[in-house]
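Lab notebook, bench 4. We co-purified these components, and the gel suggests they stay together. Before we commit to crystallization screens, I want a quick structural picture of the whole thing.
Request: model the full complex, all chains together.
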Amino acid sequence: MRFAPIPQALPAIVPFIGAEEMERRRGAPYIARLGANENGFGPSPRAHEAMIAAASEAWKYGDATSHELRLALADHHAVAPENIVVGAGIDGLLGLLVRLMVAPGEAVVTSDGAYPTLNYHVAGFGGRIEKLPYRDDREDLPALLARAAEVEARLIYLANPDNPMGSWHDGATLTAMLDDIPPGSLLLLDEAYAEFAPDAALPRIDPNDPRVIRMRTFSKAYGLAGLRIGYAIGAPALIAGFDRIRNHFGVNRIAQQAALAALQDGDWLDRTRQNVADARDRIAQIAADNGLTALPSATNFVAVDCGGDGAFARRVLGALDRAGVFARMPGVAPLDRCIRISCAPEAELAVFAERLPAALDAARQS
Amino acid sequence: MRFAPIPQALPAIVPFIGAEEMERRRGAPYIARLGANENGFGPSPRAHEAMIAAASEAWKYGDATSHELRLALADHHAVAPENIVVGAGIDGLLGLLVRLMVAPGEAVVTSDGAYPTLNYHVAGFGGRIEKLPYRDDREDLPALLARAAEVEARLIYLANPDNPMGSWHDGATLTAMLDDIPPGSLLLLDEAYAEFAPDAALPRIDPNDPRVIRMRTFSKAYGLAGLRIGYAIGAPALIAGFDRIRNHFGVNRIAQQAALAALQDGDWLDRTRQNVADARDRIAQIAADNGLTALPSATNFVAVDCGGDGAFARRVLGALDRAGVFARMPGVAPLDRCIRISCAPEAELAVFAERLPAALDAARQS
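Here is the predicted assembly.
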């Protein structure tokens, strides 16, 4: 089998092994699902009703332009529909953006330990990833900008709030940063966790600013990860580019209806924010009870510093896994002193609380 | 906005304008939705129940490997799970296959008037489309093979049964054709409509044969177009290639569950086949009642020869559209003497029957 040169040269790796696959490998289901930053508080009941209603129309293709949802999103963000493209989750949109912007051999700048799926897509289209270390558990904005200028990066990836650390930059800092983006570079602002962040962490950006594209998702705050729906906000000329390459009928009908209903239920979103804030506190308390430090978080997860090196945290993670707790951890030092625990309902956090001490003991003794 | 060279050179066109977008343009909903070969007989009630059940787990990402569904499909087709990749519909899989196989400048051979989305993807990855005319309303197998050898095509696209004509080749002919595939070419057999075809139209192909990949969908016979789920069957080394580039979490959770339930309801599939066969007869009768000729079909649509040229058929289509009947037609001569009518429940076909005479009159008088 001879593939085209770019895929031929790719390693046969995947960015993430999913929870179900890990369950099959360990031979039992997890008791606490705290590894994928899913939202166990669930979607709005109105979104649930919309799914039920849309199931009756599953024989119809979805609207290729996600028209109603785009109008609602435009209204929600006070932008024009032409500023918005809906896609099959941020993962899908990341792939399209890389394809749209990055020719083989061109560079994309990101942080070492940041979202692996971005790196997967960049490699997948023959691009070159340039990684900068985090600085004090945050992405290092000046360093990213300097490297982007140096390597003539086509994209600068920045998640705010950050995954996997949960940290964030002030919105004002990000807004100011726009003027330092090198010509020819586009800032890719991954705002998957934006709805959990304090207002001050969100930059004010002109939607028509051609220097930046923002990505949002219904997978996190809106609790619809399984439906695969997200969107990007950017200048109309950039957004229109997606229409040249996207899979036009790729956003499923149930997802479009559910997302629309979820967006319209602001009360549920407020409730989710509160639930998530409470769960963050609970995780921090569990950490403290075990002599560990929870890092501040503006997301629906908490990076818990296990107080050792990466090998130690990996042993903790392994022991938790054996005890039925699914969690993940950052991939590189020094971030990998932490494990990453998703906010979840109390039933699951209680399992984590109960099983963490033994996992720490096991990690210390091996 | 400067895109990467390949997307920069692409025209801003889309392969299809969806029904909803056309409704917005005409300012009213359609009364009969007969244009996208959707299955208005709907999915199995068991698939519907599965959707409802899966809606409660919409907050979880779908299984990245579609494990259960792949096992069931492997069983269904008497192949190994390693022969199967599940994707977001055939459209999504076509894009991935083109990306996997076709380097910029390389050729893909298809028929002039065949599925436009294939051409869209080939252009989208910088490939070169080579089109051969149909012969007697069927794809011209020897000509496709000869041209593939001539241009060193990486892919040879063939839909069996064919869209948009509804025609088909004997399975035995297709099986025999495999030996004439030029080295370096892969036969891409689009079997979106296979479940509607007579057994004799389906080739017997060794799933491990590296010369061919087959694509199937849950959008047609299984009535789940809105969920975006399909699969490909091929040699393990080829199928494994998809894992290098696909969006691993791109197949939504509800779709996986619904597809599994649909696959397990063979009785419903039989009933759908009968409903579709009856609807084909009904469309043929409507055509005959209006002095038109329905072409034989092994699909869930019927190409109706309007007895004139493409301009005439286009006027018929336009008049039907104004009368609330959504249909489509082939894009090139001589196929475009036909309009393409999807099989549907009687309520919608009755609307077609009622409004066709006036549409023909209008087309004849303008």
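Residues 316 and 363 of chain B are 5 Å apart (CA to CA). Worth comparing against the SEC data before the next meeting. Chain B has 13 helices and twelve strands.
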